[in-house]
């Protein structure tokens, strides 16, 4: 997960932040879809 | 189709072909032709990845899947963001650092030439056949619905895109995919809006969702648990989606040249990673929206009355057969059920009472039963009993206004072109780099490489159209079979790459032998599941193949280590 010398990570200091965002977004989407399923089933 | 629809269709397709040719200029060498000189920004990489993944079947079959089985198919994509992270951490930096053109080049550097060739051949076999089917699958649906000549539809579906794919290579593919996706999203959004707009006056969007949900179509999250135990044969549930979907996405995005070739066009590791990660983020909402259209179409048909079978061609065949009277009886039965539904739906939308809901559920079960009986007649008559792929397009042709029908048919062509163009580009790059330059003509000038790339793109395009012509005679059963073709090979291919990245001590001989054993085992498992000897959803084959190969190659390395002279020859 180390950045190359020429590589600048957009918005954050490291790619780890991006990976955490993707993971959190996935968990949030699954949670929202779970409540969506419950709401209409 | 009206004249206006034809005009919309022809103009849309012509615009894409002309735009692709306009964007065709690239430097006359392999890097320029296959990777657009590695200068693409992240957003173009993102759109190219999305355009490659979303084929015509995505837009034809997904709404039909939601109509018949509900939205649980969405869980198939839950492993994708996880796979994107692994690929960004492991695969992308290595591929970009080595400046390879195909993913399989790396395998020769890591193992040996035979492992590279074996993996490349698996890819060519799998991608070549599935691209042929990508041509014929939407052609069969459109020709059945619109009465078009199937050969001509195949030629349009698989032939026109060859013009810009051959002339422009990866650059033309990426730029046309950008425009194609823009048109596709706009048209699908309008179609979704129109479904809601076409509902009876007192019924709104949330009512349509409520009806679809109460009748079991908004089952987005399912656990796969049945009677207290996990059903391994269940294709789509939370666990198969996250675990099986993860391995499938890891194989597809990490080792399939049709996707690797997209993010290798990026100008840096950062741009490749951004394209992959953002695709992981947007794919699930995008697929949710497409499936939701299917549920809205289902709710729409609750009020309008659905056909007993959505493939009119098979109904017409039944009308000419000895099953004609049985068909008429079932159609009359369906009409009576719809009459009952009209009354119950009116009451339910007014007071949403449990009593009316239960009545609606009973009527829906009876309607499903009638549909099953009609499917039985179609099967007895020698036809294709599955009509999922026809549901959405039948709605489009029957109910959408003039102009929009032409646009939605154009969407099917564009979605098909986007994925086929990327596939042709990747098939050509793999053939030139992994086969032609290794076994046929090793010392080529850049201009010779470029010309070979063009010829192989053309040859693969021709192959796919011809394969589509043959596949058309076999019909829907082959289309279903080829949908799981990827799972037969992806596990092995992914396993080889996982060993390459994570098992540094394993060498070429062990991984090559393990790959052959695991490929045979995967095919064996699939055959056993087809004959109902075991119950195993196809998504699990990827995981079993990949993990099996990692374990077996490590074992073989320990008990059958590579002799020192072979190690020296293979460059270790």
Please provide a written account of the structure.
The complex is a heterodimer of chains A (41) and B (572). Helix content of chain A is 63%, strand content 0%. Chain A has one helix spanning 15-40. Chain A has one domain (12-41). Chain B has three domains: 3-301 and 399-483, Up-down Bundle (Sodium/glucose cotransporter); 312-383; 484-572, no CATH class. By secondary structure, chain B is mainly alpha-helical. Chain B has helices at 3-22, 30-35, 42-53, 56-69, 80-98, 103-110, 113-146, 150-197, 205-214, 238-255, 257-263, 269-304, 312-319, 324-351, 354-380, 388-399, 404-440, 446-474, 476-483, 485-502, 508-530, 539-559, 564-569, and strands spanning 225-226, 229-230. Classes of the chains: A mainly alpha (41), B mainly alpha (572). Chains A and B meet through helix 1 of A and helix 5, helix 9 and helix 12 of B.
Short description:
Chain A is mainly alpha-helical and 41 residues long. In chain A, 63% of the residues lie in helices and 0% in strands. Mean pLDDT of chain B is 87; it is low at 568-572.
Q: What features would you highlight for this structure?
A:
heterodimer; A: 1 helix; 0% strand; B: 572 residues; mainly alpha; Sodium/glucose cotransporter; 3 domains; two-stranded antiparallel sheet; 23 helices; globular
Question: Cα-atom Rg of chain B, whole angstroms?
Answer: 25 Å
Report the sheet-strand fraction of chain A: under 5%
* Overall shape of chain B: globular
Q: Quickly count the helices of chain A.
A: 1
Low-confidence stretches of chain A: none
Shape of chain A: rod-shaped
Q: In what order do the strands lie side by side in the largest sheet of chain B?
A: 1-2
Distance between the termini of chain B: 63 Å
For this structure, what is the CATH homologous superfamily of the largest domain in chain B? Sodium/glucose cotransporter
Order of secondary-structure elements of chain A: H
- Rg over C-alpha atoms of chain A, rounded to the nearest angstrom: 16 Å
Number of strands of chain A: 0
Amino- and carboxy-terminal Cα gap of chain A: 42 Å
The major β-sheet of chain A equals: none
- Count of helix runs of chain B: 23
Number of domains of chain A: 1
Fill in the CATH topology of the largest domain in chain B: Sodium/glucose cotransporter
The pLDDT mean of chain A sits at 85
Helical residue percent of chain A?
A: 55-70%
Low-confidence stretches of chain B: 568-572
Please indicate the percent range of residues of chain B in DSSP E strands (runs of 2 or more). under 5%
